[in-house]
Amino acid sequence: MFIGFDTSNYTTSVAAFDGSTVIQRKKLLEVRQGERGLRQSEAVFQHTVNLAKLINSLADELGSDFKLDAIGVSNKPRNVDGSYMPCFLVGENTAEACAFGRCGVYKTSHQVGHILSALFSCKKLNLTEKPFIAFHLSGGTTEALLVTPDCDELIKAEIIAQSLDLKAGQAIDRAGVMLGLKFPCGAELDRLSKLSNKRFNIKPSFNGLDCSLSGIENKAHKMLESGECDADIAAFVIQSICVAVDEMLERIIGVYGNMPIVFSGGVSSNSMLRNSIKNKYDACFAAPEFSCDNAAGTAIYAYLKYNGKQI
Predict the structure, then answer these.
(1) Which of 27, 74, 286, 299 could be stapled to 291 by a disulfide with Cβ–Cβ 3.0 to 4.6 Å?
(2) CB-CB neighbours of 281 under 10 Å
(3) pTM for this prediction
């Protein structure tokens, strides 16, 4: 059995993977009404409180006789120099403690975990053996990545396009908090947007393959001040992100050609985005439970590393 930990700035998560099935336990970090996130010290505290309870719950389901082969854990946001957030130390230290020196601990990035969980959900783990495009759309990341096999990291993710300012998840959360929704606001804003029948003529802002999303927040604020209804504001925000992602993908294909496309990250669970992109491109989207922050990918990472990347 392979256990994974992920302690992001949104969710405490632990998962088990036996080579075919994932069992997950996770808990969203609590953010006070009206606020748009957590300080790292608060996230560290909540992870510390949450992890023992989640581990015990997972252990109860697995039973006492399972064999622990290896542990996977995210210890940084991305596999690049200088990528660091204190919240990931909680998962890393817990993984080391649970291993007790009796099994290997395989460390990777939160981003690699997202990509692997998406591949698993889409039944595309074989893509780790060849290049593909991965979109990572979340509260802190709006990136298109060229993913290639790597002997050390399993897969290497190189940014080829991104938002130059506001991230897609930030735009959603800031608009949602503005409308009185509870952070993180993705699911609620998605539901609210479906109450609108309005379609907006949106021209995304681009510099080469990179987009700018800061205008979404500014426009949403002006719409609220002018008295437009909440559902129309939500629809504008979601439609703006859909148009930007669509344009980014079209430009990427123009440069890199056609190759497999996989979407991960919490924003990728938005129904309008999934429908609009799936209808136009042959892209794979992880199921919502594998799109949002989760430890499934780190458990799968441990499995692949332990087995020498044999799928």
Answers:
(1) 286
(2) 15
(3) 0.94
pLDDT tens-place string over residues 230-245? 999 999 999 999 999 9
Residue 235 Cα distances to 138, 175, 201, 203, 243, angstroms: 18, 11, 12, 15, 12
Cα gap 172→267, rounded to integer Å: 9
- Two structure tokens written together for 45: 């505290």
**Residue reference for tokens 């002997």:** 151
Contact 50, 27 (CB under 8 A): yes
- The two tokens of residue 29 are 């970090």
Give the integer Cα–Cα distance in Å for 12 and 298.
13
The SS3 call for residue 32 is coil
Look-up: residue for tokens 């622990």?
68
CB 206 within 8 A of CB 245: no
Strands (E) located in 121-239: 132-137, 142-150, 154-162, 205-207, 210-212
Q: Tell me the backbone φ, ψ of residue 58, rounded to 5 degrees.
A: -65, -40
Measured CA to CA, the distance from residue 258 to residue 90 in angstroms comes to 40
Q: What are phi and psi of 265, to 5 degrees?
A: 95, 155
Which pLDDT tens digit goes with each residue over 176-207? 999 999 999 999 999 999 999 999 999 999 99
Residue 127 contacts residue 134 (beta carbons within 8 Å):
no
